[in-house]
Write a structure and sequence with these properties.
alpha+beta; globular; about 30% strand; five-stranded mixed β-sheet; YaeB-like fold
């Protein structure tokens, strides 16, 4: 699946890696796995509720998450993943 980075997601990834450069490899692995299989068991992908309804989240590690949404790819007739937010549990929810 194609991953589409929102501007906010791009800023948050840079900020998170600046704060903790060791997360870079985990983030890259998680994004690759998300593109290959969004429901891989190690991602712990789950649908969100309330204000974040229609969105999904997956785990990078114990404390960090990625919030995303399934969307129609603008250039293709396929589904894509729009990456919305990344950070700790409290930051993204």
């Amino acid at each position: 699946m194609q991953l589409v980075w929102s501007p906010a997601f791009s800023r948050e990834v840079k900020r998170l890696i600046r704060r903790n450069s060791q997360l870079r490899q985990s983030i890259e692995q998680t994004l690759q796995m998300l593109a290959e299989d969004p429901f891989h068991p190690s991602l712990k992908t789950h649908k969100l509720k309330g204000d974040l309804a229609e969105k999904w989240a997956c785990s990078i590690d114990y404390s960090n998450r990625i919030v995303f949404k399934f969307v129609q790819a603008p250039d293709l007739q396929t589904e894509a993943i729009l990456l919305l937010a990344i950070g700790s549990h409290d930051e993204v929810y």
